[in-house]
Q: What sequence folds into this?
């Protein structure tokens, strides 16, 4: 199907008279993003589910669409006014309390890494992990657990491993004669991947 066929199907079957082949092409190229109703219509025109069009979901809105759940249903399940929920979805900032957060995770079947990401806690987690690997990791077990409720024993093992990896990485870089500049760059690369490394280490112990 070419863009003109997709656009026609969305106009004729889904009541979106403004959809043109150029708009469909912009969606394909990633220069524009379809709204939730447009994505639903696009999936219908292509005979697939909305989740298949967005690949691996990253945002709260993408997780909801991938599950095929209406925003009204999510808002009702977590106990929020629809307008308040939509504002959180559009801003990418989750402001629900612990009970609402737990209900959200269950409604959207969110794995823990996805839950941390969509509730806006990933940046804070990265900051804590940066400090844990570069100072005394033991001091960060409780703060990290508050953001990412992982079994205490698993969390301690993971933080210790990441700390040793980072310190060993820095020491090895210096011993190779690269100097402090190379060690700094090497350390930065390690820290840039710290959240990804954290979840991989957690999964290796719990999967």
A:
């Amino acid at each position: 199907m070419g863009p003109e066929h997709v656009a026609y199907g969305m106009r004729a079957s889904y009541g979106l008279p403004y959809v043109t082949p150029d708009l469909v092409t912009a969606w394909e190229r990633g220069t524009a993003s379809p709204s939730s109703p447009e994505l639903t219509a696009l999936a219908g025109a292509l005979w697939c589910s909305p989740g298949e069009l967005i690949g691996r979901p990253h945002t709260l809105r993408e997780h909801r669409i991938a599950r095929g759940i209406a925003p009204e249903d999510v808002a009702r399940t977590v106990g929020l006014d629809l307008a308040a929920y939509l504002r959180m979805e559009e801003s990418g900032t989750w402001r629900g309390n612990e009970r609402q957060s737990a209900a959200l995770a269950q409604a959207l079947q969110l794995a823990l890494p996805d839950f941390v990401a969509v509730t806006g806690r990933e940046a804070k987690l990265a900051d804590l992990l940066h400090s844990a690997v570069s100072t005394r990791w033991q001091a960060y077990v409780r703060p990290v657990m508050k953001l990412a409720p992982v079994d205490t024993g698993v969390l301690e093992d993971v933080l210790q491993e990441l700390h040793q990896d980072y310190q060993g990485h820095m020491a090895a870089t210096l011993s190779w004669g690269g100097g402090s500049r190379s060690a700094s760059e090497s350390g930065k690369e390690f820290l840039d991947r710290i959240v990804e490394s954290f979840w991989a280490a957690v999964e290796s112990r719990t999967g």
